[in-house]
Amino acid sequence: MAEIINMPRLSDTMEEGTVAKWFKNVGDKVSEGDILAEIETDKATMEFEAFYSGVLLYIGINEGETAPVDQLLAIIGDKGEDISSHIGLKNDSQNSEEENQKTSKPNNENVDNYVNEKIESSSESKNLEIIKMPRLSDTMEEGTVSSWLKNVGDEIKEGDILAEIETDKATMEFESFYSGTLLHIGINEGQSAAVDSLLAIIGKKGTDISSIINQKVVEEVDKDQIKLENKKDEVIKNIQDNKIEKVSNDSLIISNSSDSNRRILVSPLAKKIAKEKGISLTQITGTGDGGRIIKRDIENYNFQIPNINSITPEVESIIEIENSQMRKTIAKRLASSKFTAPHYYLGVEFDMDNVISFRNQYNSLPETKISFNDIIIKACALALKKHPEVNSKWLEDKIIHNIHVNIGVAVAVDDGLVVPVLKFANQISLPEIGKSVKDFAIRARDKKLKPSEMDGSTFTISNLGMFGIHEFTSIINQPNSAILSVGSIMEKPVVKNGKILIGNKMKLTLACDHRTVDGATGARFLETLKSFIENPILLLV
Is the model's pTM score more than 0.85? Predict the structure, then answer.
């Protein structure tokens, strides 16, 4: 099946890219991870790698040509595959885009584009820099501002850290690419917004930015208050007539005499405090500019305290916790995996006596310390090299066996779970594995992992043994075909050479995608893994 590759957005401000060089020609075979081209953005020239395997069937942007983000860059598929329909769609969309650009008046389906154009034209004339919520990971759809490190009015230098932004994978520092004064903050601390939403404005001190904020308001309209789909013509007309005005970060007025709804002007901080105290804003009289409700109005509000003797004891109570970006993404991906991949589970129990002795001897070396988890990672990596069918992924038209072994190591963090990836794990020594995993765990809990460090796994290990869990099952981390659940080491009676002795056992459970890994295939992998675990000297051979 043909895979459409569009011009990627390789920086937060990138609107178009130039193909500096192609490393593949039409007709060449392409493997996942191959470098396809060098693409020049507004900030740097970067290598762009393939996320699919197949044959390069089409190049849509030649060397030296420039094209906007999301324009057709290339097509990868099966040799001889008919791609005429995809190329036809590309040409049609380009013609349609050219027609839209010739239209001086926005059509009903492009209100947001029209507003963005107005913002850009205004900012250019006033030498302002519009900073939007960046896409900091490949799966990021929205971000949350964890903290602002600069305040409105501060002088900003290129390279200064503006804010910390929480994505679906990590919390990352976001630096400024411009110098000037921070004139406006569009997303407050703790608030979430979609990628490309107005994050901040930087420019010359004292510049009037009210018109830009007014124009941006259409993108921030509460969909429950104004149904854009049903009021497109009205919104467009109000934009053209300059009848939209922004009154605060949380309030919107459309100047329309037929609109009799009450307008509540409230600062973000006051709104937050009122919500925490359970106070309705309709009961508050604002003392700020234009009757705006501010912090002191909430703090000074004298609400009636009910007679405690008249209160019926509560039977049930709840605590609501707003879902973080990470938690929402985990839920989405795990649900997709569980309900698309037919899971089955293989349980085994390994003898750990030799591993315990091996680890004790290994750790007796100067400045050397390895964990049982490090040993399991190394053993899995070597076993996967012998069983690439387990180290695989499912596509609708093919199964890909990965020759390289990239092991994802599940790490628990406050907001859920992240999976940093140990690349080429079969080639790494045990001490190097230990250092890398420890570093991943520390930076994961501090939310300092880079998106590139959490991409590209071919197999995943989840270890809850350190929490005293004896046995459990995991959901496959797609696009992997399997995940290994590792329990704790337990002392228990065992029979050896006809005698009952105290032995050390560990239970492991392999969850497999039945589309790619049959039962016998999974069993053979576990048999190989057992040989490495129970004879750990093989890890050093």
Answer: no
